[in-house]
Amino acid sequence: MNILETILTSGPGRLATKQLGLSDPPKLRRGDILPAGRVVLAATGASTLGASTLELAGITPIDPLYDEPSTRTTGEDGKVKVTSYDTRPGVIVVDATDIVALDDLEKIRSVLRPAMRDLEKSGRVILLGPAPDDTDGHEARAVAEALDGLMRTVGKELRAGSTANLIRVRAGATEEDLLSTMNFLISGRSAFVSGQTWEVGPARRSSDADGPQPFTDRIVVVTGAARGIGEAIARTFARDGATVVAVDLPAAGEALAKVAVEIGGSALQLDITEAGAASSISNHIRSVHGDDARLWAIVHNAGITRDKQLANLDEKRWKQVIDINLKAEMTINEDLLHGDLPGGFAGGGRIIGIASTSGIAGQKGQTNYAASKAGVIGYTHSLAATLAESDQGDFTANAVAPGFIETEMTAAIPYVSREIFRRTNSLGQGGRPVDVAETIAYLARPSSGGVNGQVVRVCGQNLIGK
């Protein structure tokens, strides 16, 4: 800790920063903890998808309050008072999956106005809307897109650690397809996910099982697992019942072995860029877990930065980043997806890549890194489409895009710059490695088969990018 950081984190320093508008960020509700308040359910039309999904989750919602002229009162001071809840709700779910008309947006406004004032700390606003490509007509398309802008603004206006997200429900998707996403968003597992839009469609293999250990008897490979975000991913999967194969470089062997032992998994020292990396993974799975063992999920977390402004960036630094962050993932996936590879995938599985907000918005001094992470996004979309069209089984490919996450690497950033990075999102703080891990585990669940080709940002609604 340097002198400036010591001063600013002292008693007088903290008082001064509060006076400058830099108050302590809210404590976020994390883990499987559910909100204390009730779940409110509103619908813009006749859709019952939201209601049936909550019923499947074991949640009995309450009716919403509406802001209308007849529900407002005028106080003694002459100010108009909006109707309010007797007790603070924890979650507001708005089912707008059948919305087609501009006038229907007013109902969402009337539901959210009182909710914005009354929502509990670390509350949730969850909008369900149609996928724009499934709409018919100009007005319906405009309304579907309007939900995105509405949700992102709500996320920026919410306070006290509350979040807002929009789930676009594809035609044919059911409550079973939506369940894992609804559970994720309501729970504390989605603490650092806000201002995001992604799609849920019909799963190839329906599953309404979304319990606390969904990966029991399933093998999950995590690369870059010796420390930081990778370690958190490995620990989260193990907590949720997975048998974890933790992969990292030989140089990180001691730390890797420690993680593997503590989570009851196995360690594989491997340079993922070497020829035959996929065979090394599959052979390890066979040797440790038997010839019939197959892989359920792989998380391509391993990655590096070699930052230089482009004017000073040589081909060596460029190639290192592209090879590790993107090429290795593509090569390993291609080999593991061969159904006849013992120890590889068979009949279904989950592939998770790690993108970055730098790949979405760019970052000075990181042309190589930004290119590699944007490439992960493009590759994820392409692979997901291929898997959806194949007859290989229940496969999905998705990615997460972390923003500023508190790690050893970010701790080395100078204090003032670090504080700026922390606070440039709607939640006013950096995320934790577990926030990334929880989102990845959600995408990898057997019950998340309806989520394919999506990139979910874990950034607290960073102000850069979309």
TrEMBL record:
Q: Which SUPFAM superfamilies match?
A: NAD(P)-binding Rossmann-fold domains
| Top-level taxon of the source organism | Bacteria
| Gene3D superfamilies in alphabetical order | NAD(P)-binding Rossmann-like Domain
GO MF entries: 3-oxoacyl-[acyl-carrier-protein] reductase (NADPH) activity
* Record-annotated Ketoreductase domain positions: 218-408
User: What EC identifiers does the entry list?
Assistant: 1.1.1.100
Listed A to Z, the keywords are:
Oxidoreductase
A Pfam family of the record is adh_short_C2
**InterPro entries of this UniProt entry?**
KR_dom (IPR057326), NAD(P)-bd_dom_sf (IPR036291), Sc_DH/Rdtase_CS (IPR020904), SDR_fam (IPR002347)
Q: What class of enzyme is it?
A: oxidoreductase
Q: Which family does it belong to?
A: Belongs to the short-chain dehydrogenases/reductases (SDR) family.
Q: What is this protein called?
A: 3-ketoacyl-ACP reductase
Taxonomic path: Bacteria, Bacillati, Actinomycetota, Actinomycetes, Mycobacteriales
